[in-house]
Amino acid sequence: MTSLRKTVSSLNLLATFESAARHASFTVAAAELGVTQAAVSQQIKVLEREMNTALFVRAHRRVNLTPAGQALATTISTSFTQIAEMVETIRQPAIPDTVAIGITLAFNQFWLLPRLPEFRARHPHIKLRLIADDASTDLRPAGLDVAVRYGKPPFEDATSIASCQDHAFPVCSPALLANLGIAPDTADIVKLPLIASDIVNPTWMPWRSWAKTVGLGPALGKASDLSKLRFNHYSDTVQAAINGEGVTMGWQVLLSNQLREGILVRIGSPSVTPQERHHIVVPKGHRATATVQAFLDWIMERFAAEA
């Protein structure tokens, strides 16, 4: 496919031509483009020279398209319309009093969404736009006002303004233990059905890493390798555990609601506290609006309460 930039020296030439062709006037085109009539005339001459053909027939106070000019005008008009329609389709509207929040799928599902009614009751006029994605996103080009990110600072694109530590330990449904006749504090986790994860990110604490950290030896890692149930997303492992399918890795902050309500129970006492933390981050150079600051104040308050 021929490159447009190799065909025409400047895209401005085509924009000028499109306006002049649409109005059949260099003078009206000049007013629309905010330039002089002489500048429009010069641009058209350059384009005709590059095309090696006349595009307009100059008449008194009016210009008419030549057959070549008409063909080019039709194509450019159609193309510009398609471009304009696509721009409008993908453009995100600028909505006042809106906070754009970047967050992982699991943190959104298990931590933020259950707490959002409190924020919305306190600030009913504020609109929230939640972008849930496990992929690392640069806050600046993504247009995010704030994000909750798990890791260790410094972050290249963002500044951490608050953080919360988490603790990892095995969890399962109380129904699973009841069916097996086992108490959660005396259960031998190696003998329980493990739910395994294919998540590549090591900060999600795979079974092998957790066992090594708490000094349980290789048996747990081998058991997870033989698991009959595996998922590639943490939210699914948690739901499977709630359904009584087996034991998954639990996080004290992330699953605080499920643990408090008894939907999931902790197995045994060993726990790992990673160096990574949940961070509230804002784009570097960020100057928070009053709307964004209201959300930041609320989520930092919740982090402090649950730290």
Distance between the termini: 58 Å
**Which structural class do the helices and strands define?**
alpha/beta
What radius of gyration results from the CA coordinates? 30 Å
Strand content: 15-25%
Describe the structure.
Helix content is 45%, strand content 18%. The two termini are 58 Å apart. The protein has 307 residues and is an alpha/beta fold. It contains 13 helices and twelve strands. The radius of gyration is 30 Å and the shape is elongated. 26% of the residues are buried. The protein has a five-stranded mixed beta sheet. It has three domains: 4-90, Winged helix-like DNA-binding domain superfamily/Winged helix DNA-binding domain (Arc Repressor Mutant, subunit A, Orthogonal Bundle), CATH 1.10.10; 101-162 and 276-306, 3-Layer(aba) Sandwich (D-Maltodextrin-Binding Protein, domain 2), CATH 3.40.190.10; 168-266, Periplasmic binding protein-like II (D-Maltodextrin-Binding Protein, domain 2), CATH 3.40.190. It has helices spanning 4-7, 11-23, 26-33, 37-51, 67-90, 105-122, 139-142, 174-180, 207-214, 219-225, 234-242, 256-260, 290-306, and strands at residues 56-59, 62-65, 98-103, 127-132, 146-151, 158-164, 168-172, 196-197, 230-231, 248-251, 265-266, 277-283. The mean pLDDT is 90. Helix 6 links the parallel strand 3 (98-103) and strand 4 (127-132).
SSE order and pairing:
Layout: H1 4-7, H2 11-23, H3 26-33, H4 37-51, E1 56-59, E2 62-65, H5 67-90, E3 98-103, H6 105-122, E4 127-132, H7 139-142, E5 146-151, E6 158-164, E7 168-172, H8 174-180, E8 196-197, H9 207-214, H10 219-225, E9 230-231, H11 234-242, E10 248-251, H12 256-260, E11 265-266, E12 277-283, H13 290-306
Parallel strand pairs: 3-4, 3-5, 8-9
Antiparallel strand pairs: 1-2, 5-12, 6-12, 7-10, 7-11
Helix pairs in contact: 2-3, 2-4, 2-5, 3-4, 9-10
